[in-house]
Amino acid sequence: MMRYVNLIVVLLLIMLAGCDQASMMKMIASSEDQQVAKDYIDLLRQSKFEQIEKDLDQSIKSENIHDVIVKMAALIPSQTPQSIKLVGANTFSSSDRYESNLTFEYQFPNEWIVVNVAIRKKGGISTIIGFNVSPISDSLENLNRFTLSGKSLHQYAVLALAVLFPLFSLYALIMCILTKMDKRKWIWILFIVFGVGKFAIDWTTGQWSVKPLSVQLFSAAAFAPPYGAWTLSVSLPLGAILFTLRKKKPAEPAPLQVDSAKRTVTDGKL
């Protein structure tokens, strides 16, 4: 019995792993990478376009690149930012190059902007491979806050299933553990704890996606990157459904056995 309890504990720990993603993001983006990106953003705010254009990678240079940079600078308010937050970080490293892709949220007195800067280091030379400025109506934390108001029927349905499916899977798992059966119990346990397929929906935008060839622990998950939108996903608890139906199926009655009475016939009489 205890080994099955230990299995449940291990599976729950897997679900809880990676919760502190904000700290992980800071570990990914070194202080040097952050400072380089901020320096380019400051050059843009100060309208020092020549330095930016000089460091642009050939892959993003075009005839109208100067006009594009000027338009990006116009999106940045002239006031001093009230806060600067690192809200996104990705890095890539190989034998011949290193790339960092950082996103910052700038808060000004009356507006917010998100600035993305991607840098490539290759052969001792650092170039800009991506630069983008996007105004936003509120902070990303507020825009992507989990709330139940103003959502679509699809979102409410997925939320309900994301609560019901794990409970149903847990019920089937407990029933499986308590049921006497042969060595197939481990197969049933694995079949029950993993849902089949995946339907995911963005809680902020309502956009959804389907992945038929996918499995998911306890048939549901909820994930949100730091400052990002929540994504809810559900899977079909096929194993839990089949095991529950198997348990509810009535047992076949045992065949009746009738002992034949032996009769001895003597002199034509019974």
Task: Compute the number of structural domains.
Answer: 2
Low-confidence runs: 12-19
Determine the CATH topology of the largest domain.
Nuclear Transport Factor 2, Chain: A
The CATH class name of the largest domain reads Alpha Beta
Structural class: alpha+beta
**Quaternary class:** single chain
Radius of gyration over all CA atoms, rounded: 31 Å
CATH architecture descriptor text of the largest domain: Roll
Distance between the termini: 61 Å
Q: What is the typical, i.e. mean, pLDDT?
A: 86
Say how many strands there are: 8
Largest sheet: 4 strands, antiparallel
Helix proportion: 25-40%
> What's the overall geometry?
elongated
Helical segment count: 9
Strand content: 25-35%
Strand order within the widest beta sheet: 1-2-3-4
Order of helices and strands: HHHHHEEEEHHHEEEEH
What's the quick description here?
This protein is α+β, with helices and mostly antiparallel strands. The chain has 9 helices and 8 strands. The strands form 2 sheets. It has a 4-stranded antiparallel β-sheet. The chain has a 4-stranded antiparallel β-sheet with strand order 6-5-8-7.
Task: Furnish the topology, listing elements before pairings.
Blueprint (H helix, E strand, L loop, with lengths): L1 H15 L4 H8 L2 H15 L3 H6 L10 H10 L8 E11 L3 E11 L4 E11 L2 E12 L3 H4 L9 H26 L6 H9 E9 L5 E10 L2 E4 L7 E6 L1 H11 L22
Question: Could you characterize what this model shows?
Answer:
This protein has 270 residues and is α+β, with helices and mostly antiparallel strands. It folds into 2 domains: 25-142, Nuclear Transport Factor 2, Chain: A (Roll), CATH 3.10.450; 144-248, no CATH class. Helix content is 39%, strand content 27%. The chain contains 9 helices and 8 strands. The protein has helices at residues 2-16, 21-28, 31-45, 49-54, 65-74, 140-143, 153-178, 185-193, 238-248, and strands at residues 83-93, 97-107, 112-122, 125-136, 194-202, 208-217, 220-223, 231-236. The strands form 2 sheets. A 4-stranded antiparallel sheet has the order 1-2-3-4. The protein has a 4-stranded antiparallel sheet with strand order 6-5-8-7. A hairpin with a 7-residue loop joins β7 and β8 (231-236). α7 (153-178) packs antiparallel against α8, α7 packs across α9 and α8 crosses α9. The longest helix is centred in the middle third of the chain and has 26 residues, at 153-178. The two termini are 61 Å apart. The relative contact order is 0.11. The model is unreliable at 12-19 (pLDDT under 50).
